[in-house]
């Protein structure tokens, strides 16, 4: 019979085991709860768009590459962005700088190798950053193996693209396209293939034939592309030109004339209404199939590029609970609504924000885009004085901000001569019209320092000219300056991680033609008030007089635009909200207790 001491020891040990099991269960339960309630990474991040040709050139050939991006991984981490989105890096003849893909699962040698890609992905992940790739599903290059075989009618590739017989022949015996459809890059959307004796359809360049998504094999091929990169560790995709995936089956139909007074060129894309070639219902079915694939992997993002004047069409790409689609379609309202400074006012800005938020499906997540590789630089569109204020706005609104490389230092458009023009969209409009259509000015090399060619390359030239202002406007100078666009951006990136911004509410206390204000607040935490002067004149505003809610008498200055040099608004100063002075285009970020 065991003695009393043994029994006591046994029961004590048993008690410890039971306590341990309970503690482990509680920890596990808490961990599961935390995992369930933690928001996905794309809701906690700034998305930073890198245009690979223009970010950093490592090998000295004048064109940016993957090793160049890798060399700036620490910069990206210090900047405070959480997700790096790369414009296309796939094998390509570069007719449209990577958006003409010759192999969807290979790296373009101009940018490096698959080993370089793996090294970049690992470096970003090691720093806690996510990596998102461009997915270009609407078309391939005409040099893609699929198209080469399709043009020869080789099975199973014969119907991988959209082919059509001529409508007839003209007096000279030349084939006539089956309809009047136009290319986004100007001119007919049909090109004759002599080898096949048929036309093929292309929404963009003739070297970018549209894939046929009515062919299940094509759909399966593109699903495999997604799986290839997801298995390689990418964190999601930005889906290019998604609204163009399908056209009506009956291609004998012409699209109607738009009767746009600003467009009298019958070969210009905007001469027609594109009801037969965009936003077809089958498009959403395919996007849902892609969503299903991403959902088989943990915490992946899908961002959809959808330009459309009809906000309802854009919102369809969110999907719904039963048919989930993109995590968000890009919100281009801050681009499309404001083409220049004269369009901008406090009231118009508020209207643009409301238009998105009021139409966004319930339970979905907003995003804010100021610029990208297809639109002019923020400082060139609106004025350099508004650079900081607009960065303050998009980084402090609820939602995911998207920053185009260089906007953190306030890069400006670069004049590109006709001789230096690279953009095919510009080239198609000739010497007289190229400047109105060129996207080259916003694609010029990143300005890293004041050395030769802005520190972008060790070579003797760059694929596009460097902006002449690089001596003064560059990363290194702004890192060492007492105040700069870059330092404001970094502080905003840090601030947006505070609970007031991650969990807080939003209000707009004062809105007028000249003034826009944004209040972020959360019970028990500091409140933040952004006040913007959208006008080109200095002004003084009494926020109490015009506010639609109660505000405190005073507030402390947190950040101000670099254009503000007043003693009264030095960060840390207290100012009276009844007499807030703002320089032209200024953003002033204030804080006060609840």
Give the beta-strand count: 23
Spatial sequence of strands, sheet with the most strands: 13-12-11-5-2-1-15-14
Give the full name of the CATH homologous superfamily of one domain. Oligo-1,6-glucosidase, Domain 2
Structural class: alpha/beta
Number of helices: 19
Strand content: 15-25%
Span between termini: 69 Å
Overall CATH class of one domain: Alpha Beta
Mean pLDDT: 93
The main sheet comes to: 8 strands, parallel
What name does the CATH topology of one domain carry?
Answer: Oligo-1,6-glucosidase, domain 2
Percent of residues in helices comes to 25-40%
Fold and architecture overview:
It is a single chain. Helix 7 (216-231) packs parallel to helix 8 (281-294) and helix 13 runs parallel beside helix 17 (485-495). This protein has 19 helices and 23 strands. Among the domains are: 139-210 and 246-279, Oligo-1,6-glucosidase, domain 2, CATH 3.90.400.10; 504-592, Immunoglobulin-like (Sandwich), CATH 2.60.40.1180. Strand 12, helix 9 (311-315) and strand 13 form a beta-alpha-beta unit. The termini are far apart. With 594 residues, the chain is an alpha/beta fold.
What would you say about this model in short?
Among the domains are: 106 residues, Oligo-1,6-glucosidase, domain 2 (Alpha-Beta Complex); 89 residues, Golgi alpha-mannosidase II (Immunoglobulin-like), CATH 2.60.40. Helices cover 29% and strands 15% of the residues. It has 19 helices and 23 strands.
């Amino acid at each position: 019979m065991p003695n009393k001491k043994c029994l006591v020891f046994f029961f004590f040990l048993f008690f410890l085991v039971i306590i341990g099991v309970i503690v482990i269960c509680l920890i596990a339960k808490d961990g599961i709860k935390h995992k369930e309630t933690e928001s996905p990474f794309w809701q906690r991040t700034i998305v930073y768009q890198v245009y690979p040709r223009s970010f950093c050139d490592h090998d000295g050939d004048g064109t940016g590459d993957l090793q160049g991006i890798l060399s700036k991984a620490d910069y990206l981490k210090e900047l405070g962005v959480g997700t790096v989105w790369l414009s296309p890096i796939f094998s390509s003849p570069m007719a449209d700088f990577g958006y003409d893909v010759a192999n969807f699962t290979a790296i373009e040698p101009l940018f490096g190798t698959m080993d370089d890609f793996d090294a970049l992905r690992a470096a970003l992940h090691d720093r806690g950053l996510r990596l998102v790739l461009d997915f270009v599903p609407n078309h391939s290059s005409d040099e893609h193996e699929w198209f080469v075989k399709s043009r020869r009618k080789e099975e199973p590739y014969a119907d991988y693209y959209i082919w059509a017989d001529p409508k007839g022949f003209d007096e000279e015996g030349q084939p006539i396209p089956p309809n009047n459809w136009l290319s986004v890059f100007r001119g007919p959307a049909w090109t004759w293939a002599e080898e096949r004796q048929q036309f093929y359809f292309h929404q963009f360049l003739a070297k970018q034939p549209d894939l046929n998504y009515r062919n299940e094999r094509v759909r399966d091929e593109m699903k495999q592309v997604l799986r290839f990169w997801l298995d390689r560790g990418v964190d999601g995709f930005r889906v290019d030109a998604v609204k163009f995936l399908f056209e009506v089956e009956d291609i004998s139909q012409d699209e109607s004339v738009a009767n746009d007074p600003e467009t009298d060129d019958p070969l210009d894309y905007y001469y027609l209404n594109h009801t037969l070639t965009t936003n077809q219902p089958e498009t959403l079915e395919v996007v849902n199939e892609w969503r299903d694939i991403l959902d088989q992997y943990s915490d992946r993002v899908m961002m959809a590029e959808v330009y459309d004047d009809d906000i309802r069409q854009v919102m369809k790409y969110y999907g719904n609970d039963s048919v989930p689609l993109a995590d968000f379609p890009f919100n281009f309202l801050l681009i499309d609504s404001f083409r220049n400074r004269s369009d901008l006012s406090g009231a118009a800005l508020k209207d643009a924000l409301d238009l998105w938020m009021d139409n966004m499906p319930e339970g979905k997540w907003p995003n804010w885009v100021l610029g990208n590789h297809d639109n002019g630089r923020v400082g060139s569109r609106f004025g350099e004085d508004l650079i900081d204020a607009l960065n303050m706005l998009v980084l402090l609104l609820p939602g995911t901000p998207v920053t185009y490389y260089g906007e953190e230092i306030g890069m400006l458009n670069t004049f590109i001569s006709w001789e230096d023009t690279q953009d095919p969209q510009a080239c198609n409009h000739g010497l007289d019209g190229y400047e109105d259509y060129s996207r080259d000015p916003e694609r010029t090399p990143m300005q890293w320092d004041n050395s030769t060619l802005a520190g972008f390359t060790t070579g003797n030239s760059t694929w596009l000219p460097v902006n002449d202002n690089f001596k003064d406007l560059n990363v290194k100078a702004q890192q060492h300056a007492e105040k700069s666009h870059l330092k404001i951006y970094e502080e905003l990136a840090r601030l947006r991680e505070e609970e007031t911004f991650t969990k807080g509410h939003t209000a707009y206390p004062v809105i007028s033609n000249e003034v826009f204000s944004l209040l972020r607040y959360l019970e028990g935490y500091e409140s933040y008030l952004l006040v913007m002067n959208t006008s080109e004149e200095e002004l003084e505003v009494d926020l109490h007089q015009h506010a639609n809610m109660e505000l405190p008498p005073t507030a402390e200055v947190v950040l101000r635009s670099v254009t503000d040099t007043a003693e009264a608004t030095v960060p840390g100063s207290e100012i009276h909200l009844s007499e807030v002075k703002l320089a032209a285009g200024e953003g002033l970020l204030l804080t006060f207790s609840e």
